[in-house]
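Sanity check

After download, print the first record. It should look like this:
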Amino acid sequence: MSLAASKRPISRLLFLYPPYVQGIVPAARRHESSARRTTKRLRVKPDPSFIPSTLTNQLQDNVIFNPPSSSPSSYQTPAAFLPPSDPRRSLLARSHEHDNPYAQPNKRLPPPIQKPVEKRYHLKEDEIAEIRLLRQKDPDTWTRKKLAQKFDCSEFFVSMICEASQERKQKQQLALDDIKARWGKRRTYAREDRQKRRILWARDE
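Expected structure tokens:
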């Protein structure tokens, strides 16, 4: 079979190339036929309502009205755009009655998802002094969690009435720095980004 009789391009005949070139797969090429099919689908005609009027051979300023295929709803049309004699005004007023059915005074509310927690002020002065003494004496043993369990209060209340010593804070900071030293680039960048977002939240940005 001669090369003239072959319909395949010469670039596809790998046996004509040296052995070190035969292992290279030829790159795919886009021909005119495939390009024509691709661009034809993108050639979409605009809607007639978007074409400006050219009756006087001059482009005139006009309002383009291209409503959706569905009919307008009285729940979506603002009352400011409805005429005074439109019956949809009464329908719109009735719809507001069902916005919050629990706003009625005699309406029974649904049950709560979680049991509401009531604040208790049951600790006396001597118990508060004991919490401060235990926290100052041995902060490693009497942590906020253990003190909250012992005196039946919250950890936040324990942090309000007593503060850890400076030695305890320095020890915790050294442990935190040791943990941060083992972080990778991704976690370090994520934590720095979190701090920046918190600063922006405080600025309301």
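If your output differs, re-run the checksum step. Summary of this record's structure: The chain has a mean pLDDT of 75.
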